[in-house]
Each structure stands twice: as structure tokens, then as C-alpha cells.
Amino acid sequence: MTGYVGAIDQGTTSTRFIVFDRAGTIISVAQKEHAQIMPQPGWVEHDADEIWSNTREVIGAALARAELTPADLAAVGITNQRETTVLWDKATGHPVHNALVWMDARTERLVAELEAEGGQDRLRGKTGLPLATYFSGLKLRWLLDHVPGAKARAEAGELLFGNIDTWLAWHLTGGPHGGLHITDVTNASRTQLMNLETLDWDEDILTLLDIPRACLPQIRSSSEVYGTCTGVLDGVPLAGILGDQQAALFGQACLSPGEAKNTYGTGCFMLMNTGERPFPSGRGLLTTLGYKLGDAPAVYALEGSISIAGALVQWLRDNLGLIANAAEIEALAASVEDNGDVYFVPAFSGLYAPHWDASARGVIAGLTRFAGKGHLARAVLEAVAFQTREVLDAMSADSGVAITELRTDGGMVVNELLMQFQSDILGVPVVRPKVIETTALGAAYAAGLAVGYWQSTDDIAANWGQDKRWTPAMADDRRQMLYGKWNKAVARSRDWVE
After folding, report:
1. Element (H or E) spanning 94, and its range?
2. Angle formed by the axes of helices 438-450 and 244-251, nearest 10°
3. How far apart are the first and last CA of the chain?
4. Which of 15, 82, 172, 235 could disulfide-link 54, Cβ–Cβ 3.0 to 4.6 Å?
5. How many CB atoms lie within 10 A of CB 471?
6. How many CA atoms lie within 13 A of 467 on its CB side?
7. Residues β-bridged to residue 431
């Protein structure tokens, strides 16, 4: 059998191609960043053509570094930033507007109008999601309203919509020359247009939001042979698609109800496997698809979504210039004993789970003349951990399951100061796996299972291994004091935007 499986990991700030072997070990990787376009406050865009160009480039580079060809790959999978929205011309293959990124907040007015008519949770029963700027259905609505002629062309099937997975799958399988217009259930569940029970586009919601069905992709499982790639991956089966956070859940081998992981990337995303039925949340979490393997029943998850985590470190680097690169933040934060009573609430695009408050904006609270850049750096790292505590508390209360350890992954888990504080503020152990690139690994697993490269999910569970474990070392009274101060800071961030 062909020796390896490839995964395209298309994230918020960069695109990677990673080649894995049967043990889940990385054989080769290539990565390239793309531009973050911010036309005005609260708006965030990407050039989807740039992302597609970078994807081709990193595939070629990763294969070349390992002296591989497409013939050495048994299959390829895609994982992607989920709610980022692309609308493109079927004939030319080019977008009609920059992609609207998941954290883009320009649909605030649409959200407010829909809430006024039926409340924030009017679509939660069918979609598992509250009304929010986060999801891609309303982003598509904005594009149809603001790109001249887009509505009529979408109704005629001349324009195609998709999250980034759909954009890449279409191009990989031929683009204007017969490319497959598909998505998987995990990405479809992030549009707020798919019914969680039927796993199909919901006609009532399409009517409410005035979305033409003709522009929507076909919804497929997360693991099946969709078609064959052309171009840079010529002849390789495209066989797996998972939204990035669901891919990390799968790559972390959270295969049984109650198992949970937290990914520390641009944002921070905690998911818990809840089994084969959707689990409604009463505490601000999202009910979403976990994964669906071929014809097997879909597996659902509870999710807590935090919009700003690693992006706050980038902000400290790029906007304030306090560090030259992201890795420097750990040493700067460690230069002080504690946060100096400084708290940073990074509500740059409002608060996501469990608050869902689009009116909130970022605040730095507790500043005195004593505070220095070390305290600010520490407050940045602690903000990630405090937000995770909010989500974990909600998840435990919703599910009735006391989480006894948290599996972590993503770029920030190399920061040992953060991981120790995370364990301290949660009061439970935090575990880092041997392979921290679990998002790409999950997409590889989905693709490899579809072609028999891995025989079953037992192989996935067997591959998972622990690299390091942090245990709580903080007194409970201090833990509660710090968390209480955090909640005061959060309260001061709210009700900022009129």
C-alpha cells in the first residue's frame, strides 16, 4: 500500500501541508502565512486566491522536502478555518469579494434585526447555534446584499458558496473544469443553515435568510472518497474533510462521549464528544457535529468557542511591538511573579462562549503605575486560561460530566507557563500529546480511514500518546480570587458598542 497520507491544514493565519505515516508521525511539513486584511474596525478579510496559491505552494514544498511525489500518498484530507466565507464565480474560479473571516463582525446589524424578531436562540433548536456574527450563513447573506448582481447570479447557479474546505476541494478536483462543490457535515454545521437532525440544508432557514439553495455545496460525510485530485496532487483521492476544531477532536482520539480537548490557536476552542445525539446547551455552548465516518451515524459535540487566544499574542507583537516574535512572550511573562492585578479581556470582536455578547470590546483592567510590560504579557497569557475556565465550567454544568483532565493542542501548548497556569486555574491536569499538530492529523485520519490506510478508529486511539502533563499547584483560595477578578474585568468589557 502507498506509504503516507497528506493533510491540508488551512488556518486563519497560514496554510500548511503535512505528510504523516501510519504511526501518525510527521514525515514532512511546509507552511506559508497569508495576509490579514482589515478594511475597518471589526472587519477581517482574506484573499481566497492567495490561500489557494499558497496551498499549491506548500503541497509542492512538503513533497519535495521528503523526496515524495503524489503517487506516494494513499489519500489527502482537508481541515480548515470553519466559518470563513467565500463566494466565487463558477466559470472563472475567482472570488467576487474577499473572504469574510470567521471573526469578522460586519453582520452585527443583521444579527440584531433577527434577534429583535425572534430572540437570540430562534435558530438554536435546528442548528445548535445562537444568532451571532460568527457563523457563515449571515456572512453569505451580507455578500449577496453588497456585491452587485450577486443575488441573481447565485440563484442562477453562477456563483458558488463555501467555507474554505469547499473552496479548496473545488479547486483540487478540477475547479472550473468539473470541480466538486462539496462540504462535510462539520463545516455545514457552522453555516447556521444546516439542520442537525437531517444533516441537510434547512428550507425554512434558507427562506428566512433569503439564501438561494443553488449556490450551496452538497453535504457529505467527513470520511469518504469524494473524488480524485488534479494538478499538484494529481491522482490522489480526496477522502477526508473536517472543520479544524472537529479535526483536532478526532486527532486527539476523543472518540467516546465525555472526552474533551482544547485547541489553542488564533482562537481557543474546546470540544466534548457527546455521542450520536445532539446535546442542547443551556449555558452558552454550541451544539455541533463532531464527525461522521462514511455511512456510520454522525457523532455530535458540545463546543465552547473563544475568538481571541493566540491572536492576542500577535496583537502584542504587531500592534504594540512589545515582543519581536510570539515565542518571546513566555520569558517576558515569567519576568514578573504574577499579573500585578492586571487583567486583559480580548473582546476585539465581542465575547463568544459562554457570553455571546457582540456589544463587548477589549479592555485592560487594573492598571497602576506599578504595571509594566511583563505584567501585560502575563495578563495576555492568563486571559487565554481564564476564557478556557469559563468554557470548561459551562461544559461540565451542561453535560453533568466532571472533566478530570484536559487534552490540549495547537501552537500555544509549547508555552509551559501558560499550560501550568491553565492547570492551576482549572484545578485539573492538563495533558499535551506527543503530536501537537492534531488538527492536520485528524484530517489525515479521516482520509486514511476512507481508503483503508488505517483500518478503524482503534488505530487512532493506539497512536495517541502523552508528551507532558501539568498538575494544579495553586491554592484554591487564590484560584477563586483570580477568577473573581477576571469576572469583574469581563463585566467591564460589556455593553460598549451601542
Report:
1. none
2. 80
3. 60
4. 15
5. 12
6. 14
7. 407, 469
435's CB contacts (< 8 A; 6+ apart) are 24, 25, 26, 251, 441, 465
Residues 6+ apart with CB under 8 A from 439: 9, 11, 79, 244, 245, 247, 248, 251, 263, 265, 409, 410
Residuewise pLDDT in 10s, the chain (498 residues): 579 999 999 999 999 999 999 999 999 999 999 999 999 988 999 999 999 999 999 999 999 999 999 999 999 999 999 999 999 999 999 999 999 999 999 999 999 999 999 898 999 999 999 999 999 999 999 999 999 999 999 999 999 999 999 999 999 999 999 999 999 999 999 999 999 999 999 999 999 999 999 999 999 999 999 999 999 999 999 999 999 999 999 999 999 888 889 989 888 989 999 999 888 888 889 999 999 999 999 999 999 988 889 889 999 999 999 999 989 999 999 999 999 999 999 999 899 889 989 889 999 999 999 999 999 999 999 999 999 999 999 998 888 888 888 999 888 999 999 999 999 999 999 999 988 889 999 999 999 999 999 999 999 999 998 999 999 999 999 999 999 999 999 999 999 987
Are 60 and 19 in contact by the 8 Å Cβ rule? The answer is no
Q: What's the chain's Rg over C-alpha atoms?
A: 21
Sheet (strand 223-228) strand order: 26-33, 14-20, 4-10, 73-80, 237-243, 223-228
* Number of other CB atoms surrounding residue 46 within 10 Å: 25
Provide the whole-model pTM. Answer: 0.88
Residues β-bridged to residue 466:
433
Give the span between the Cα atoms of 45 and 36, in whole angstroms.
6
Contact predicate 302/347, CB 8 Å = no
Task: Decide: 185 and 289 in contact? Cβ < 8 Å.
Answer: yes
Does 354 sit behind a cis peptide bond, omega within 30 degrees of 0 on the bond before it? yes
Q: What is d(CA 398, CA 283) in angstroms, rounded to the nearest whole number?
A: 7
User: Quick count: other Cβ atoms within 10 Å of Cβ 434?
Assistant: 13
Residues contacting 177, CB < 8 A, separation 6+? none
All three cell numbers of 27, joined, read 514525515
